Amino acid sequence: MILRKDLERGRAAYEQWGQAARHALADGGEAGANGGNGGNGESGASTSVAYRASLDPEVPRSTQAMAVRYSLHLLERKAPGPGVEVRVAPWGAVKILDGPASDPHNLTPPDVIELEPNVWLRLACGITTWSEERQAGHISAVGERDDLSELLPL
């Protein structure tokens, strides 16, 4: 997932993404958020669920990748186990929580959660909640353990 030598760089990238997201929220979209209110600074836009659930701060692709890898590392340490696979394509996947291990034929656990990188980072940083992202249709989850709200934000 992330190499030990990259942990500090990952932590810095995770913090950079979170700061860029919070800055975009404070500016109501004028500081580089793609989507949302289009950067027009409308009053209250920075706190609306729809705006927060579309937040996509402009950071280098390599920063976003490292932030995803580092935050998945944090999740894996917080809730180790083989029961649920959390996938954030294209940059990583981890298995967490106790439960049945992967099927020996395809190596996929019975519970799989898939998220886009910005959705995952919004959740990990506390910009949005699990229920907000789920209601927006941004979470694909299969299995009985399809809710990570107790583990987030990191």
From TrEMBL:
Gene3D superfamilies according to UniProt: 3.30.1050.40
Domain Bacterial SCP orthologue, first and last residues per copy: 61-154
Alphabetical list of InterPro entries matching this protein: SCP_3
Organism domain of life: Bacteria
Pfam family, one: SCP_3
Descriptive protein name: Inorganic pyrophosphatase
